[in-house]
Amino acid sequence: MKKIGFLSFGHWTPSPHSAVRTGADALLQSIDLAVAAEELGADGAYFRVHHFANQLGAPFPLLAAIGAKTSRIEIGTGVIDMRYVNPHAFVEDAGAADLISGGRLQLGISRGSPEQVIDGWRYFGYEPAEGETEADMARRHTLKTLELLEGEGFARPNPRPMFPNPPGLLRLEPHSEGLRDRMWWGAASDATARWTAELGMNLMSSTLKTDESGEPFHVQQAKQIRAFREAWAQAGHDHEPRVSVSRSIFALVNDTDRAYFGINRENSDQVGLIDSTRSVFGRSYAAEPEQLVKELAQDEAIAEADTLLLTVPNQLGVEYNAHVIESILTHVAPELGWR
Description:
Layout: E1 3-8, H1 23-40, E2 44-47, H2 59-69, E3 74-81, H3 87-101, E4 105-110, H4 134-149, E5 183-186, H5 190-198, E6 202-205, E7 208-210, H6 217-235, E8 243-247, E9 249-251, H7 255-261, E10 270-274, E11 277-281, E12 285-287, H8 289-296, H9 300-304, E13 307-312, H10 318-332
Helix pairs in contact: 1-2, 1-10, 2-3, 3-4, 5-6
């Protein structure tokens, strides 16, 4: 059994060929798609966060709005760039959004990826400390965020406060119990996956990975997941971890599907450079349901994961993306034993 959700990059463009032409369109349609996905029986609504781009940049208002409009579906990010984050503001905003949703947030965070501008985090007021890299800064922000999510008091109370204080040191409010266990790290390498496990975060692995062996993407990703689980067991955490993988999967069940995705199919992995690091990008899947089942059954990483996030072409609109999700839930997932 697997949890199956969608991952939206939240693009918008003023092009007449796009169903999502403004930031308002992207936000409101994201809410509508989450509601539709819940009604279809999907398990998660996840959103990519990018700054300085026509994409979803401020996650917590969106997550809170979805939380208020839904009742069951998990609501998450994939991922928030921790180079841009004030840990204290993050914990307050996340706590509020999680309480609004009834404890359904699943927050994917990471050290980030190449952005639209040079060192965009500097415009947010952040600088690496002496001797730090920007990745080090992201991890420092992460460690502080995880500490604050524990909910322990740390701030000295004013002896003459405006309102009465509880005894002892004060914590950030509102505090949402259990959110610390629902934090995920987007790991590209095996070493980072092990670091994720040591810190007790869930593993979020997407459609690209550092190329560490030259093997097919899904094989390397499966090995990364196994390394994560081994490190988790060695760390002795008292609960089971979760692992998600992302895939572009399209079941071709009507003429519209075939027009969009039935031609010029990319059936193999791609290799490229991310920040001068050789990376392997996983293939997309698009086929008639029977063939799709056969191909997906060979994907070792999907077999290892407990959560599958379907990347959706959000600019094609809510109705079509709901169809994409429903097609997988109806024609593919049962045949593979995912549901």
